[in-house]
Amino acid sequence: MFFYEEALAATGSFDSSGTPSVSAAAAIVMDAETGQVLYAKNPHQPRPIASTTKIMTALVALECGNLKASTTISERAAGIEGSSIYLKAGEKLTLEELIYGALMHSGNDACVAIAEQVAGSERNFVNLMNFRARQLGARNTTFANTNGLPDERHLSTAYDLALITRYALKEPVFRSIVATKTHVIPGPRGKRYLSNTNKLLWSYQGADGVKTGTTNAAGKCLVSSATREGRSLIAVVLHSDDRYAESIRLLNYGFNNYTQERVASQGEVFTHLEVKDGVKEKVPVTAAKDLWVTVPLNQRVIEKSMMLEQELTAPVKKGQVVGKLQVLQQGELVAETNLLARTDIERLPEHTLQWKRFVGLVKSIFPKTDE
């Protein structure tokens, strides 16, 4: 309980502008649903990230592997240095058990075993990690191993880690494991009792993840997540003097100073577009999905901008993309979604179109004049 009180006492550190002040070399707070950045310090600075690497290791394993498949632990995996769940060469564990060991107890040996089971070798698996990072938009991230052991090529950023974590938390198994405080997996000499290395799970209301990391080069790192009243935030601190207190400070800042607003509802009609040669002259235009944005409590001013097709020609199909809705805050794009045709609009029969063209031609030749 002492830790909790100590951390709360540290949450009062803010600069003159009201934003949190942290010792961490790099830090960020991101809304997990919208992806908006609420606070950042050196967010795109590549740095060593230690065992926070294992977030990506677990994500790739969950996307590419079979949780119930078992593997025989190799001598290489069993002999890896650093933090460990004490795997023994020749014993068998399932991929799910190894992921528990990697995320909860930060087992470097579990990570190598995961890689060998899913991709045949750690090198092949690391290639998958780097490919997935590029797919997710983590452009300043390069993985050299599965566990975060020191390597000058192995770097990421506060922003990229938050981005990767945001996607990982959409995986139900990942979300469940990183929120687990204690767990038991088998071992050759009895059961292995795992205790999550993330102390926030015991000390911060709503904490539900994610991963610690510590090396001399990376310093003390923490990727954390918490959910309150339906809102989920992700905080990252890299090379922090007090990773838990500073993570609490960042999460409190996000919860206390921001709220979510729905700016569009799926199916809501925003406007009507004219349709040329259709049985109806206009088609209603709707949002493709519910659109939420995170806004400061003291500055809830947002701007909606619609970009629409200049002209539609029948036939128009229901669900056809006809434009884009963008939401801006202080001139910055914070969210967007496609605008869709709400209904089908059939094309007029050809004879009707020919008659309309004939009538139009006659009117152009013999314009009506006032007498």
Automatic annotation (TrEMBL):
Pathway: Cell wall biogenesis; peptidoglycan biosynthesis. It catalyses: Preferential cleavage: (Ac)2-L-Lys-D-Ala-|-D-Ala. Also transpeptidation of peptidyl-alanyl moieties that are N-acyl substituents of D-alanine. Its EC number is 3.4.16.4. Keywords: Carboxypeptidase, Cell shape, Cell wall biogenesis/degradation, Hydrolase, Peptidoglycan synthesis, Protease, Signal. Substrate binds at residue 211. GO terms for molecular function: serine-type D-Ala-D-Ala carboxypeptidase activity. The keyword Amino-acid biosynthesis does not apply. It is an enzyme of class 3 (hydrolase). Coiled coil: none annotated. The active site is at residues 51, 54, 106. Belongs to the peptidase S11 family. This is serine-type D-Ala-D-Ala carboxypeptidase. It comes from Desulforamulus ferrireducens.
